[in-house]
Amino acid sequence: MAYVQALKQAWADGSISKDEETLIATLRKSFGISEQEHAGLEQEIQVETYLEAIMGAWKDGSISASDFERLDTLREKLKISAEEHLRLERQVRQDILRQK
What is the pLDDT of residue 54? Predict the structure, then answer.
């Protein structure tokens, strides 16, 4: 769906610019997506974006201090709770262990 792809691209850097916000609002209206649907999709995409960042940080089996700081900043921007962070990080570490 074009709307989901636009949301993913907009959130890829952890925040939405004014131009991206305007584009998303225009697409949302043209596709007839409700505020509730938008909020649900946006939350899913934010979690997915954060999960991808965690996977990138842990790709070599450990996390550096700079990776930790970058993730912490992104977590705040995306409004990911500490509990959600721990759940996602645990998931990534388990996936890494299974691959070894």
Answer: 92
Interatomic CA distance for residues 20 and 13, integer angstroms = 12
Radius of gyration of the chain (CA): 15
DSSP H or E stretch at residue 19 = helix 18-31
- DSSP string for residues in 46-90: HHHHHHHHHHHHTTTSS--HHHHHHHHHHHHHHT--HHHHHHHHH
**pLDDT score at 100:** 62
Q: How many CB atoms lie within 10 A of CB 87?
A: 14
**DSSP per position, 25-58:** HHHHHHHT--HHHHHHHHHHHHHHHHHHHHHHHT
Could you tell me the two tokens for 99? 């691959």
